[in-house]
Amino acid sequence: MSGGRRITGWRVRDGVWTADVGGLDTRQLYVDGRRAERAHIAGLPGEARATGTGYVTGSPEPREWRSPADVEFVYRGVYPWTEARCGVAGVSADGGSTVITMAQPAYGWAGELYNSTWEGQTSHGPGLPTRIENDAAFLREPGTFVLDRSRPGRHVLLYLPRPGEDPERTPVVAPVLETLLSAAGARDLAFRGLTFADATWLRPGRPEGFVHYHGGDYYEGGGVETAVLGEGASVTYPARSAAIPACVSFRDVAGVEIEGCRFTRLGAYGLGVSGGDGVTVRGCDLDTLAGGGITVSGGRDATIEDTWVHHAGLDYSGSPGISVRGVHGCVIASSEVADVPHCGIVAGPGTGVRVLRNLVADTMRVLADGGGVYVSGAAGVLAGRRGAGAGQRRGGRAHAVQLRALHRLRDRLADGGGQPGTAGGQHRRAHGGAAAGERRLPGELLGRRPRRARRPARRRDLRGERDRRRRAGTGRGHGRHPGAGRARAPAPRLADGGVPEGVTA
User: Fold this and answer.
1) Which residues, including other chains, have CB under 8 Å from residue 261's CB and lie 6 or more apart?
2) CB neighbours of 436 closer than 8 A, spacing ≥ 6?
């Protein structure tokens, strides 16, 4: 099931492919099954400073942007766990300076949200961008593209090809749809062996932008609150948040199984479940995702098992591979999360949530202040962990206010020259982000019949080793913990079904 459109009618000029695409609007492009990056540069040229409406720089380069209203600023690490996106409204000259006016309300919302004080230093607003995307002047690296929307209804797609690609033979697909499947109130359904591919999410490209706060949540006005951390330190956070949607979504369903499916080349979350009872996700592969892999909110008795999430958060770096919150009786088991820019698995708040026998690797590759497995709020039981990096918090607002490691701001201030919004230190080094997956979709748009994706031998080997150790009765390595097989006293319980801080059962 593809929401994409095959792009044809290419013209070649100075090595760049161009195609007239009418009113097409998209934020992603896939060439021969591989993800193409939006053309970009690494921040504002010249000596730049922020103003109440945008920026002023001494460089004339922004005046050479061909379609300024299509340009998007990316702010990585305003807070160590955030990455925002705001559009440009226009570029003009003011004497020898260049004035950049940002789109509203996104820039104004960013000014409301991003305010912090740490060790006597105060930051207001998003600061300087760490990356600037989507203008023909940025087409410098092979495998990058630009969508020029300067003429309404007569958009032009530009692509700088990789070596060996041919405009007549290389398939190019642009995602068009934002939702591939939406089910509400359904009962007793099963989805097996399907591939969901090629969808986008257009909201970040609108004047509202994407003012990210944490995880898959972003700010869209409504006011902020201030968390006082003591010793003069504070940080603002949204009074309420919106959530990145999923390209395949289930709402208030019961007895639904999603088994052996693949979710790939999607512009938001891959799979979303809200409310409902008894939803099972089993044996699925999710890869090459702009947002996170799976999000579950509300409801009861959800199960995610034997599932592989990798190369997620490619456009929205705060997105965890798997996120569950407000759920009673959720189990995440025997799954793998790898190659994600922030947290691998985020669980809580909720009751009776279990994270069991999962492999979590290569997390926290872009943003900071998180973990391979991050538990926020009273979530129940965290057990049988495989892989490194588990963090835990308690408190009703822990999912919205990640304050546990605000000392990261101090590091950012030291690296960024006094402005948390500047491209300092670890965030500049991490600027390239997680690499996109190179797996190609064997779908109808490439002229071949879809088939179920296979997991790599590495994963099968780990499982074989786990099963071998179980048969042998050993408890080291992946699989059972060193004390497996011995009777253990039950862990003490909290009133909400959780366990006290620091207790693992």
Assistant:
1) 191, 192, 193, 194, 195, 196, 284, 285
2) 34, 35, 37, 288, 311, 314
Query: Contact at 8 Å (CB) between 25 and 149?
Result: yes
For the chain, the maximum distance between any two Cα atoms, rounded to a whole number of angstroms, is 78
**Residue 486 C-beta-side C-alpha neighbours within 13 Å:** 7
Cβ distance 158 to 232 under 8 Å? no
Rg, the chain, Cα only? 23
Residue pair 283/308 in contact (Cβ under 8 Å)? The answer is no
Report the C-alpha gap between 433 and 429 in whole angstroms.
9
Nearest to 304 by CA among 286, 290, 316: 286
pTM of the predicted model over 0.90: no
**DSSP letter (8 states) at residue 414:** H
- Read off the pLDDT of residues 362-408 as tens digits, 9 standing for 90 and up: 999 999 999 999 988 765 655 554 443 443 333 222 222 333 333 33
Q: What single string gives the DSSP state of each residue in 111-154?
A: HHH-EEEETTEEEES--S-SEEE--GGG--STTEEEEE-SSTT-
Sheet holding 195-199, edge to edge: 195-199, 262-266, 285-289, 308-310, 336-338, 359-361, 386-387
